[in-house]
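Sat 14:20. Reprocessing the chain from the morning session after the first attempt stalled halfway. Input below, unchanged.
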Amino acid sequence: MIIRPIAHKDLPALQAIAVESGPGFTSLVDDREFLVNKIQHSIDSFASRAEQPGDEGYLFVLEDPETGEVIGTTGIEASVGLASPLYHYHKSQVVHHSRELGLFKRVDVLNMCNHYTGCSEICTLFLRPQFRRPNAGKLLSKVRFLFMAQNAQRFASTVIAEMRGVSSDDGVSPFWDWLRTNFVDLDFATVTQLVGAGNNGFIAELMPKYPLYTHLMSGDAQGVIGEVHEKTRPALRMLEAEGFRHKGYVDLFDAGPTVEAELEQIRSIADSIECTVQVIKDGTSAFKPKPDGAGQAIMVANTEVEGFRATVTDQATYLAQHSLLQLPSSLAESLGLRDGASARFIPMATAKTSGLPESAAAQPVPQPRQQQELKYAL
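Finished this time. Tokens:
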């Protein structure tokens, strides 16, 4: 499996993903012109020489090198809410108190806000279910942090992820159903398609501008505030392991949580290691296997932008004292790496392994429950 920047040849696969992901996945909509423009914007972003975050959007695809099939996608927005407002609800409490009458009432409210304007966002993660395989979901999630670690100047100090909220396979959202009944008579699929395509003017025109008292909502709507779609739970656990936290901000339409972290404190960024590549003949690595015979898997990427490539491998050896990463020649070639080139990597597993630096190997990486792979996340 190889991660690379998206290209126009990937349009049919991206359109298939837009269909497969279903309503609620606002990062992609099944609109050919929209997807063509999204791909071109990504190509332009990778080609830019950005020295600070702007309107760049980076979209990657996960490819099976043997078949050429695109099996998933993942992305990063450098700075959100600049060209088009990014709205959230913030969950907080208000207190109604009368000293004279001796009455005290604390209630939950949702206030519309633009709190995350200017932040970077990791988004558009989808692993096509027919292509699930070990480490594919992790690669799609963590590869963004390798790219951000190498190109920190392109991204904001705060990184967010909008997690998909609760909705059914046929596009019914309990939270939106309540809003639709009381404020905006549009079905959930239509709303998410409008927002995904950047047509969010109706938010300022039709959405309620005053605090929403949650105890006045239906029980179903109250019950999903801050909750994630069942297929997004593995992605949320993975981001929590990276240091992301929910601070009360939820999506306007399905009430899914938005989580945040400081760029420099994201675990995979802080623990990533830049090193020099030594290309060796296939099968001659000095790597010492673990007692069970399996090597320590790492995620490794080159340090290019337009030519970015990344993968997961257990065929690498890191010589910490020389800051040298030994890679088999066939693997190095697939990543566009030559002898003496720079690379960046992070360990994928928890156990210490000779050949990996203690600072990287000693840190445990929580595994998704029952080794569940990601289908789609954000």
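Confidence is low (pLDDT under 50) at residues 289-294, 350-378.
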